[in-house]
TrEMBL record:
Record's keyword annotation contains Repeat: yes
Species of origin: Hippolais icterina
The name this protein goes by in its record: LRC43 protein
SUPFAM superfamilies cross-referenced by the UniProt entry: Outer arm dynein light chain 1
Gene: Lrrc43
Entry keyword Repeat: yes
This protein's UniProt keywords: Leucine-rich repeat, Repeat
InterPro entries cross-referenced by the UniProt entry: Leu-rich_rpt, LRR_dom_sf
Gene3D superfamilies: Ribonuclease Inhibitor
GO CC aspect terms: cytoplasm
């Protein structure tokens, strides 16, 4: 599926919410019909269940018993179990668009999703959206529910934040952009309190950000930021990288998954006021030990000076990807 909506429909089919022991069917029709009658007694007793039907307890047991052919795998999410059990006890709640109202966390990992489409707005209670390991390059913020608190886009192809920052969810607390294609200096301007007033955690690891001074300047406006991950960016190669950030962002608690203790903060005290210590370049020395399969250049060095004979020139380019 290329969109979130298509991936979600595939997910629902996988859960089988309309199939036994979930959904509507001959196994529960008396109980469900009784709910429509205000004078009906609540079902649940074994003797009150007509032949060919099952009690709610029996149906739940089929879902929960690991030896049952209808059981979910042990590593399934709590939400998977919740939806299956709701579809068993009260399938009318999942009829039509009702399923969208129950979901607060949506995890679509490695499903080939390329587009965050407007169908996502049907999830009016959604608080957590995990879209890791897909092919998303742009995120249209107008398609994100305003209730969102967690947005994880790790391992995608995001290379620009402009669309995401047009109308970002105002209550977002975590933004995960690790292992994407962000590169400075144009992206830093999107990482300020104007766009993310409630951001507590930000993951920008393993992108191509290079301007440490500008990035820290913008991040300093995020008053609630406590967790920051920048490792894997070129700017993390700067010798004074950690100390400069620790001193520049006094509210930060964790940097690159390492807690900032008072002793470390005291150690780097005053570094933020010395930006001249931040070098913007680094030198990398690479030595090539051996290369195989190349013509021997000595065979072409026997020509006399001024010779008109044909000359063959070979050139080679070696690239290194960091």
């Amino acid at each position: 599926p290329s969109s979130i909506s298509a991936a979600f429909q595939e997910y629902l089919q996988h859960l089988g919410l309309q199939d036994f022991p979930c959904g509507f069917g001959s196994w529960n029709k008396s109980r469900l019909n009784a709910r429509r009658s205000p004078r009906a007694e609540p079902a649940g007793l074994e003797e009150a269940v007509p032949p060919g039907e099952e009690t709610p307890e029996a149906l739940l047991e089929l879902l929960r018993d690991q030896h049952s052919p209808w059981a979910l795998p042990p590593d399934c999410s709590p939400q998977d179990r919740l939806l299956r059990e709701v579809a068993t006890l009260a399938p009318e709640l999942l009829h039509g668009s009702g399923v969208f109202q129950l979901i607060k966390s949506l995890r679509i990992l490695d499903k080939g999703v390329e587009e965050v489409d407007e169908g996502l707005l049907q999830f009016q209670q959604l608080e957590e959206l995990i879209l890791s390991a897909n092919y998303i390059s742009r995120v249209t913020s107008a398609h994100l529910p305003r209730t969102l608190k967690v947005l994880e886009l790790c391992y995608n192809a995001v290379d620009d934040l402009q669309d995401l920052c047009a109308q970002p969810p105002p209550e977002l607390q975590h933004l995960g952009l690790g292992y994407n294609r962000l590169c400075g200096p144009s992206q830093e301007k999107h990482l300020t309190v104007d766009f993310w007033p409630n951001l507590v955690s930000l993951d920008l690891s393993f992108n191509s950000l290079t301007d440490l001074l500008e990035l820290v300047s913008q991040l300093s406006t995020l008053q609630n930021l406590r967790i920051l991950v920048l490792q894997g960016n070129p700017l993390a190669l700067i010798p004074a990288y950690r100390g400069f950030i620790v001193d520049s962002l006094p509210r930060l608690s964790i940097l690159d998954d390492i807690r900032i203790w008072p002793e470390e903060r005291q150690q780097f005290h005053g570094l933020a006021s010395q930006p001249e210590l931040i070098r913007s370049g680094a030198r990398v020395v690479v030595s090539v030990g051996e290369m195989k399969g190349l013509p021997n250049p000595e065979a072409f060095q026997q020509l006399e000076v001024g010779s008109e004979g044909p000359m063959i020139t070979y050139s080679y380019c070696v690239t290194y990807e960091f």
